[in-house]
Design goal:
The protein is α/β, with parallel strands linked by helices. The protein is 31% helix and 18% strand.
């Protein structure tokens, strides 16, 4: 079942605290959190729940055994997919995100697996950075920035 609004997709996340913080952002914006296995931790890890505080029970969590299982069940359209990588040529400010977008993020240490990037290269976006002293941003921070950008027109104010 696909939810209304964008979904955050974490492909093989490694750090439980980041996943917990991302879950908290998902609750704040009423977004689904999709986890693609294998995970670098157990979902029951207390660090996941600590980072998500008492919001973890409110997360709309869906897990898939693999990327292929996710693609097979959800069958996302090309215009729904936004893969976030620091080397993406297009700024995440450029797209008009559909309400049913999938915002896809990779592992903290290696990013999105190359075979996924190759299959969806036209969907790559990045968060611009003004300094060349930083290689990448923390996963949870990147997800928060991207999630708010994706729903900016829906939030009002």
């Amino acid at each position: 079942m696909t939810s209304a609004g964008p979904s955050i997709v974490l492909v093989q996340p490694e750090i439980p605290g980041n996943t917990g913080a991302v879950g908290r952002t998902c609750v704040a914006l009423d977004m689904e959190l999709v986890l693609i296995h294998p995970l670098g931790f157990q979902i029951t890890d207390k660090r996941v729940k600590r980072s998500g505080l008492d919001y973890w029970p409110h997360i709309r969590l869906v897990e898939f055994a693999s990327w292929d299982a996710f693609i097979a069940e959800r069958t996302p359209r090309a215009d729904q997919m936004f893969l976030f990588e620091e080397y993406g040529a297009r700024s995440f400010y450029e797209p008009d995100y559909p309400e049913d977008a999938y915002l896809v993020f990779g592992r903290e240490t290696k990013g999105i697996p190359e075979e996924i990037v190759e299959a969806h290269r036209e969907s790559l976006v990045s968060l611009p950075m003004r300094s060349d002293k930083v290689r990448s941003l923390n996963l949870a921070n990147t997800v928060a920035a991207a999630a708010y950008q994706a729903v900016r027109g829906q939030l009002g104010g």
